[in-house]
Each structure stands twice: as structure tokens, then as C-alpha cells.
């Protein structure tokens, strides 16, 4: 496998969205956002309309990372193209969305701490794509896919906007928060000792030096950024869900996080989930954040509310949380074969 960029059978367009919703966002992040749109082979030769799959990233992910090439692996923009290259899988338009923030991510929710990123995705990105490409502008022909925090976004977006999205794929998506987040409360409190138990002092230090050069940076960034999304105070400042001295949960704040746990959201959004035409769920059996257990819990929830088995793909495979990008084209192929045309 050559370590350089490969040729695509389809075409990848690079463009920019000038977002009205993200103007004057709380963090002062850019309101002009890059967007990449892939069209499959044959798109330019005819007038056919295509289903669309929106792809979103995990925490600290930004759109440029889709082009990262690691040794002996191709980036997803190439493995996604390979799904459609020989014409055996019906073509789809694939949209790569950027929802990065200064905190490392938006969790694809609307928040006074970070900005209206859920609305940006649903009310600006989707109409922008539909207006410029030959999509089939219908929920039955529109899916969303992501890993980790992107997997979380892929789960909640069709729950909140079933009018827009009729299928999803979640790879090790954030679920079962008492394990995925709660198990790190103690470590985070220990890391904060160096900063007098003040996460704002850590944030000031983090921004003053090369990122991720001290133990605990990854853990503290996740909590700080997610608190900005899930539990900002009235002024928009991140509120931690645990006591920074002891690691003990702060119930009134932690409960705000738990409201966003997809496992706990299943019953509230049962009608929307039962109306999905295709749901892909997978995770590694050695996932560092126990998201394999969360995947099981989410799958069990779908069964409990009566989502038909034939609409669900579920698999646990031997892996940790890292380096599972080879799963993305598998889900893309599965979705492409199930979206309405």
C-alpha cells in the first residue's frame, strides 16, 4: 500500500459554509466552516438523485483529519470511495461535517456554553447540501454516521430530528455514562490537585503550552469541553459533574449529563427510534471507555421499545477504542444498501 494520496473514483469537493447560527458563538470560534462533499462515480454523467450520508467526528476531531494517512491504512475518504468504486453498491453522496470548537468539540448539541451546533447541522448544513447537490431530500434517504462523540451525535440526531434522518451508524458511541465518564471522575480529581482543584487554572495552563504534554490533559479536556456542552452555568462556563477535590458526583450537575445518555434517551424518543429504517451499532470488546457495554445497553433498549431486529446491525469485535476506522466503510456500505432511492 503506497503511503501517498490515492486517486478517487468519485469526486471530493471542498467548500465553506457561512453559518448564520454560529456567528457570535460563545467561544468566538469561526462561523465560516469547511465542508467536504463526496459524489460517487457517475454523478457528473447523469441527472440521478442520490441518498446522503452525513459523517461526523469524535472529540477533538476536525474535518482535516479525514485526510490523515496512518501507516498501512488508507484514510476514510479513500475507503469510503472504494465502497462505490466498482458500482456494486448503489451510490451515495457523503458529507463530511466540521463541528469543532475551541474546547475540542461540540457534542453536536445546542449549548449556551459552546454554540448551536445541533441546529447548525440540521438547519444549515442539510439544506445547504440539498440546495447544491442532487440529493433525495427526504429522511428515508438520509443517514448520519460517526465514532465516539460522533457516534453519540449519530445516535441523538435522529432522535431529536426524525424528520431529517431515517438511518444511523454509531461506532463506539458515547453511552452508559456512569461507565464511560463516571469511571474517570477520580482520576480527574487527582489531576486537578496540581491546579488547586480549579479546572480553569488547568485550562489556562493547557493553552499556554504545547497541548497534551502533561498527564491528565486528555481526561481534563474531555470533562471541560463536555461540561461546556452538557452543563454550562448561566454565564456559559463549564460546570464539572463531580467535586474537583473528591471526585464525588454533584447530582444536580451530573443529572444534566445523564439526560444526554443515549441509553437513557431511548424511551423518551421511542417513536423516533422505531421509525428508523436502519441502525448500525458496533464497538470493540476492549473499549477503553466501556462503550462495548454501552453498545449492548443501547441495543437492548432498542429491543425493549420494539425496533425490529431486521433494521439493526449489531456487532462487538476485538479492539480497543482506537484504530477502528476500518469499520467506517463497512457501515457506509450497509447504510447505502438500505436508504430509499
Report on this structure.
Helices cover 33% and strands 16% of the residues. The longest helix has 16 residues, at 117-132. The protein has two domains: 11-174 and 262-336, Rossmann fold, CATH 3.40.50; 179-258, no CATH class. With 341 residues, the protein is α/β, with parallel strands linked by helices. The model has no long low-confidence stretch (mean pLDDT 97). The protein starts with 10 loop residues before the first strand and ends in a 5-residue tail after the last helix.
Could you give the topology of this structure?
Layout: E1 11-18, E2 32-39, E3 52-56, H1 76-85, E4 93-97, E5 110-111, E6 115-116, H2 117-132, E7 142-147, H3 149-160, E8 167-171, H4 177-180, H5 185-191, H6 199-207, H7 217-230, H8 251-258, H9 262-265, H10 270-274, E9 278-284, H11 291-305, E10 312-317, H12 328-336
Parallel strand pairs: 3-4, 3-7, 7-8, 8-9, 9-10
Antiparallel strand pairs: 1-2, 2-4, 5-6
Rg estimate, integer Å:
20 Å
Q: Give unreliable regions as ranges.
A: none
CATH topology of the largest domain: Rossmann fold
Mean of residue pLDDT values: 97
Q: First CA to last CA: what distance?
A: 35 Å
Query: Mind telling me the CATH class of the largest domain?
Result: Alpha Beta
Q: What's the SSE pattern?
A: EEEHEEEHEHEHHHHHHHEHEH
> Count of DSSP helices?
12
Q: Determine the oligomeric state from the structure.
A: single chain
Widest sheet: strand ordering: 1-2-4-3-7-8-9-10
Major sheet details: 8 strands, mixed
Number of strands: 10
The gross shape turns out to be globular
> How many separate domains?
2
Amino acid at each position: 500500500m503506497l503511503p501517498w494520496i490515492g486517486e478517487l473514483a468519485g469526486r471530493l469537493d471542498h467548500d465553506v459554509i457561512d453559518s448564520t447560527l454560529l456567528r457570535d458563538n460563545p467561544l468566538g470560534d469561526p462561523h465560516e466552516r469547511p465542508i467536504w462533499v463526496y459524489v460517487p462515480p457517475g454523478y457528473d454523467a447523469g441527472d440521478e438523485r442520490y441518498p446522503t450520508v452525513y459523517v461526523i467526528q469524535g472529540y477533538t476531531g476536525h474535518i482535516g483529519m479525514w485526510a490523515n494517512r496512518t501507516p498501512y491504512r488508507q484514510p476514510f475518504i479513500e475507503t469510503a470511495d472504494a465502497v462505490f468504486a466498482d458500482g456494486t453498491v448503489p451510490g451515495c453522496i457523503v458529507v463530511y461535517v466540521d463541528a469543532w470548537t475551541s474546547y475540542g468539540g461540540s457534542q453536536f448539541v445546542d449549548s449556551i456554553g459552546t454554540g448551536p451546533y445541533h441546529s447548525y447541522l440540521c438547519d444549515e448544513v442539510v439544506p445547504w447540501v440539498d440546495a447544491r447537490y442532487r440529493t433525495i431530500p427526504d429522511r428515508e434517504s438520509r443517514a448520519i454516521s460517526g465514532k465516539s462523540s460522533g457516534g453519540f451525535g449519530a445516535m441523538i440526531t435522529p432522535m431529536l430530528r426524525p424528520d431529517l434522518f431515517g438511518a444511523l451508524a454509531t461506532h463506539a458511541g458515547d453511552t452508559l455514562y456512569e461507565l464511560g465518564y463516571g469511571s474517570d471522575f477520580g482520576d480527574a480529581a487527582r489531576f486537578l490537585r496540581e491546579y488547586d482543584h480549579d479546572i480553569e487554572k488547568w485550562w489556562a495552563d493547557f493553552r499556554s503550552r504545547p497541548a497534551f504534554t502533561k498527564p491528565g490533559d486528555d481526561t481534563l479536556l474531555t470533562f471541560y469541553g463536555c461540561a461546556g456542552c452538557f452543563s454550562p452555568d448561566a454565564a456559559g462556563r463549564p460546570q464539572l459533574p463531580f467535586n474537583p477535590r473528591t471526585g464525588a458526583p454533584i447530582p444536580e450537575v451530573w443529572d444534566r449529563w445523564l439526560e444526554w445518555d443515549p441509553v437513557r434517551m431511548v424511551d423518551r424518543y421511542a417513536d423516533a427510534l422505531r421509525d428508523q429504517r436502519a441502525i448500525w451499532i458496533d464497538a470493540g470488546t476492549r473499549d477503553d471507555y466501556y462503550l462495548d457495554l454501552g453498545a449492548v445497553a443501547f441495543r437492548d433498549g432498542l429491543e425493549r421499545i420494539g425496533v425490529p431486529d431486521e433494521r439493526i446491525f449489531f456487532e462487538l469485535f476485538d479492539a480497543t477504542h482506537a484504530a477502528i476506522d476500518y469499520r467506517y466503510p463497512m457501515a457506509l456500505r450497509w447504510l447505502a444498501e438500505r436508504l430509499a432511492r
